[in-house]
Each structure stands twice: as C-alpha cells, then as structure tokens.
Amino acid sequence: METNVVLVGFSGAGKSTLGRQTAPLLGLRFVDLDHYLEQKLQYKIPQLFEQFGELVFRKSEYEVLQEVLEDEGQLIAVGGGTPCYAQAMELILEQSFSVYVKLSEESLVQRLANSRKPRPLTKDLTHEELESYVRETLKKRAPYYERAHLIVSGEGITPEILAETIRLEWQK
CA quadruple 29, 20, 64, 100: dihedral positive or negative? Predict the structure, then answer.
C-alpha cells in the first residue's frame, strides 16, 4: 500500500483546504507543496514567478515534490501545474495514491475570480480572460490529472466524504 496521498487538480479546486481538513481523518500529516516551497526557498510564490519566471518556479516545485515524496504518512496538496512539469505525474503515480479533485470550468472560474489568495497566472486577468485561461489550461492539464488513481467531484465534497472515498479506494 502506498504511504502518501497526493491531491491534484486545477488551481482553485480546493486541494489545500480539503487536504488540511481530510489529512487528520486519514491519520496523515498535511503538506501543502506551495507552502513547503515558500518555506524552503524563503520566497512567496508570486515573488518567485516575478523574479525568476515560471520555468524556474516549476523546476523548484519539481525538486521539492521529489523531496516531500521521500517521506511517508502524508496527504500532499500540489499546485495546479505541478503534475504537468517534467516527470512529476509519473513520480506522483509511482510514489503515492493520487486523487484528482475535479471541478467544472464554471466553478473554477468562479472560485478563482473570488479568491482572496492572489494566483500568479490569473491575478491580472479580466473575467473573460479568466474564462479563456481556465478553458485552455484545463484542456492541456486534464490528461495529466485524469491519470490519477482516483477522480472525485470537488463540487460540494466534504472532508469526511473524501476521507471515506480514499479509504475505500486505497485499500483495493
């Protein structure tokens, strides 16, 4: 049986919030990969993007993913683009039980538009640009996300339902 659970999905899908609340129900420690990266590099994600660009950010993100996956007993929430860089999804599939928290384009647009947390790739977009960004980016990322061991609808899911679903599927 795998020793970590990794939540993948689009930015704004609720991976961090769900993960934080679900981890204790599964007896796992919660790790937010973005937060871990910020602590390790002493930069906030938006600063990393601004100063070094997306490619350097993705490379750093991949390196900390490898590092975090070496530990066990964790529920890890990764950034929306994490599974799509280098061999990240392969790494996630090999070293964890992965769960895709899936939401509709409409829900993602609404959540990102109302997000209190500025997200580097969407912070300066108009509503129309945001809709286009979500549609186009989701089209590119979905093939990575859909490789997860388990796909759950993020629409109205509770930590209890997620924990029970993971427990049932993880044991198979």
Answer: positive
Query: Which domains does the chain show, CATH number per domain?
Result: 4-167 (3.40.50.300)
Residues 6 or more apart whose CB falls under 8 angstroms from that of 14 comprise: 101, 103, 111, 154, 157
Average pLDDT over residues 21-28: 97
Q: What is the chain's mean pLDDT, rounded?
A: 94
Q: pTM value?
A: 0.95
